[in-house]
């Protein structure tokens, strides 16, 4: 089977009835290994900038960050690279920036940290913009957005960074900017968010954690953590519908997108862009190539009628087997 999947990797990620899906990769380190996938993907759907920050001894300076980001952008140009601003806090601590809190996942995390430390965000934004010079494939993604003021503040800083660079003789166009849909509150503010940004990216890992109130890393409650919980699926299906009505390009970059059954559900809901870790690509592509869009849509309808995560998993497993 592995051989078959490998052979399929150069074929389009398209359903038997001709519905094309865009598959993208999530990156952090090891740009070389992933850049070889370039002919088979639509770009980088999520570059987690905190990953390189975790292996340094202090915050990397503007020059060092520019070099890192340039490497990503150049490796994949002209394909888009979605760079997420620093998402530390929660489970991701930097040794040189310890955060000690009783409830880290509900605490100082992502955009909350970087807006409280605009000097950190400014260096990062300047480096991203600098790195994008003459390439034009940078997109910027804001993590852990809870309300629109955070978006406005971040956009102001982005404009300031661009103005500063212009004064220094580095003129770069305004990149497309998106927000992570991962705090449940954003599900109810899609219209206001859509007025401010160019795209949504769904973080199904955190959306699941916060909708179910289950710490994604706590083994004691690991049984309860399931992105196929009916509540999560209903939320995702409504989100796909509302985002489409708003005309907002919306991708999914959480683990659900890299799970073949999850990818089929997302496709059936109407998401057209899925971003995943590179090793998940072959199986997801193979699933898409075997299942007509109408069948995926019917599967979503059937799934949404089920009451428990176990029932959903049972149905998905039976269908996946039948489709192999
Ligand atoms: C997510 O929350 O689904 C996501 C993609 O971001 P991270 O896993 O880095 O929190
Ligand atoms: Mg997240």
From TrEMBL:
GO terms for cellular component: cytoplasm. Signal peptide: none annotated. This is phosphoenolpyruvate--protein phosphotransferase. Belongs to the PEP-utilizing enzyme family. Coiled coil: none annotated. It comes from the Bacteria. Keywords: Cytoplasm, Kinase, Magnesium, Metal-binding, Phosphotransferase system, Pyruvate, Sugar transport, Transferase, Transport. It is found in: Cytoplasm. One of its GO terms (molecular function) is metal ion binding. The lineage of its organism: Bacteria, Pseudomonadati, Pseudomonadota, Gammaproteobacteria, Oceanospirillales. The chain holds residues 421 to 744 of 753 of the full protein. GO terms for biological process: phosphoenolpyruvate-dependent sugar phosphotransferase system. It comes from Bisbaumannia pacifica.
């Amino acid at each position: 089977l592995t051989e078959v999947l490998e052979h399929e990797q150069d074929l389009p990620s398209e359903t038997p009835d001709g519905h094309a899906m865009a598959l993208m990769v999530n990156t952090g380190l090891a740009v070389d290994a992933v850049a070889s996938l370039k002919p088979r993907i639509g770009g980088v759907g999520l570059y987690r900038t905190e990953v390189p920050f975790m292996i340094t001894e202090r915050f990397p300076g503007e020059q060092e960050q520019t070099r890192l980001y340039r490497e990503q952008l150049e490796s994949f140009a002209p394909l888009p690279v979605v760079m997420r601003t620093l998402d530390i806090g929660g489970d991701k601590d930097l040794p040189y920036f310890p955060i000690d809190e009783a409830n880290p996942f509900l605490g100082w995390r992502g955009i909350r940290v970087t807006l409280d430390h605009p000097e950190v965000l400014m260096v990062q934004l300047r480096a991203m913009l600098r790195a994008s010079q003459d390439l034009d494939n940078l997109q910027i993604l804001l993590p852990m957005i809870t309300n629109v003021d955070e978006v406005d503040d971040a956009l102001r800083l982005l404009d300031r960074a661009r103005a500063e660079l212009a004064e220094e003789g580095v003129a770069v166009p305004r990149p497309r900017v998106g927000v992570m849909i991962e705090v449940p509150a954003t599900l109810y503010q899609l219209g206001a968010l859509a007025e401010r940004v160019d795209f949504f990216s769904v973080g199904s890992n955190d959306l699941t954690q916060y909708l179910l109130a289950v710490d994604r890393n706590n083994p004691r409650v690991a049984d309860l953590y399931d992105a196929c919980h009916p509540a999560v699926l209903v939320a995702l299906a409504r989100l796909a519908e509302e985002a489409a009505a708003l005309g907002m390009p919306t991708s999914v970059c959480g683990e659900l997108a890299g799970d073949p059954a999850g990818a089929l559900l997302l496709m059936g809901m109407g998401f057209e862009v899925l971003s995943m870790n590179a090793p998940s690509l072959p199986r997801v592509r193979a699933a898409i190539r075997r299942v007509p869009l109408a069948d995926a849509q019917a599967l979503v309808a059937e799934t949404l009628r089920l009451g428990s995560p176990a029932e959903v998993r049972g149905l998905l497993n039976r269908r996946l087997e039948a489709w192999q």
